[in-house]
Each structure stands twice: as C-alpha cells, then as structure tokens.
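seq:
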Amino acid sequence: MSRKKKISNAITYVVLILISIIWLFPFVGLVLQSFRGEYGGMVDYLVPKQFSLANYQFLFGDGSKFVRWYGNTLTIAIFVAILQTLVIICVSYALSRMRFKGRKTLMNIWLVLGMFPGFLTMICLYFLLKQLGLTQEHAVPGLILISVASSGMGYYVCKGYFDTIPKSLDEAAILDGATRAQILVKMIIPMSKPIIIYTMLVAFMAPWCDYIFASYVAFGNEEGYNVAVAMTRWVWTNDYQGYFTRFCAGGILVAIPVTILFMCLQKYYVEGVTGGAVKG
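struct:
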C-alpha cells in the first residue's frame, strides 16, 4: 500500500472515530445519569458522584406504572410487527406477481395518498375509535387497529424485492399444480427473508417510538399510555427535578430491545433495504 493511501486511510479512521465519539456521547451521559444516586435534575457534571440502582428500583416498584406502560408498548409493537408484515407481504405479492384490471391505477392512488401526512386524519380516527370504545384505557387495541389498517400502502420496498425474484419460478410451480398460496408460502417467503425481517423491524419501530398519536388516543388515561407518552408526562410534572434521572433509566430500558434487534438482524436489514430498492 502506498504512503499516500495509508495517510488517507488514517485520516478517514480518525474522522470516523471522532464522529462515533460525538454520536455516542449523549448515550453515555444517559446511562451514567440513570445510575446517579444523588437527588436532583440536570447537572453540570457527567460522572455521578454516587452510583445507585434507586432509579431502576423505582421503575419496577409499586409507586410507578412503568411495567404496565412498557407492556402496552411491547404488546402494540409485537402485534403491529406481525400483522403489518403479513398484510404487506400479501399486498406486495399480489401487485408484483399478478396482473389484473386497475392494478396500476390502484398503485398510483396509494402513491398519491401516501404523500399526505397521517396527521390530517387524526381527529377523524380519534372519533372513529371513540365510537368503537378503543380510546383512553382501551387505547392499546385501538393503536394496533390503526397501524395495521393502513399497512397495505407500505408495499413499495417489499414489492421491489419480490420483483427481483424470477417469475419463471412461479410458472414452473403452477405447471406442477401449485396454488398461488403455496407459491407464496413455500417459495417466495423463504427466498425473501431479508425483506421480511426489514419489514418487521420497521413495523416494530413505528409504535415503539410513537408519541403524538398514542398520546391523542390515550387522552390522559394512564392505563392506555405507552412509555413515550408516560415518560413525557413525567418531565411535565412539578417534580421535574426528581423525575429526570428516572426518565434516563426508563430511556435505557426502552432502548435495549431495539438495540438488540438491530445488532442481531443488521445483516438482513441492510440486505432488505438494498434488495427492495431494485424496481422491476
């Protein structure tokens, strides 16, 4: 390797290390403050003077409903990830492998509708859920319903991945007597592991980080809160000084499942993004 190339690589590595330090600094501060034992809000020092598990003990104690809120969030995320992925796979398969009247028109309509922000329908959706009794303490099934109901419009990436699979495989399977359902389950899905994992990760992340619509549907009832809404209410209280470190501890626990998922499934996530970007 030439001297010029070595210098170039060294500069690149130094820049990447500096960027990593800057990027990780807030997370390190969050972790350290979650173990801070001394009482008080935000401080001007990074390393706590006294380390303690009191903040985590509070989260799982009788004085907090954090476990209930965490369970609500996990329930919503798991159901949405599974149901939304099933819907997207079915819609993507139909649009990718089948040709029927109105197919392009339907795709164009969904494309145009996807350009409008979901906030435009918040008031209408809230009153619809209220009529069904799916708000406030019953906000969890309401949020699952809303997330899954419109999931078919998110077919773009998954359909792009299905388009890369040769249609000759479908034709050969049909000649052997396979049905469309058998082709999807036994051929397409096993060959589409990256895009399925990518779809599930994206579907899981949306409700896990949701705040605006979740707070709108729960509407002040603690039984229907997810962790994002509940922890925001903490820092809005008059006892903000006391809840800051508890907020940090809750943030760590919220970040753990997502971090583990991305670390374990990063390879498939990248393959799903790059494979789904190819349009047939």
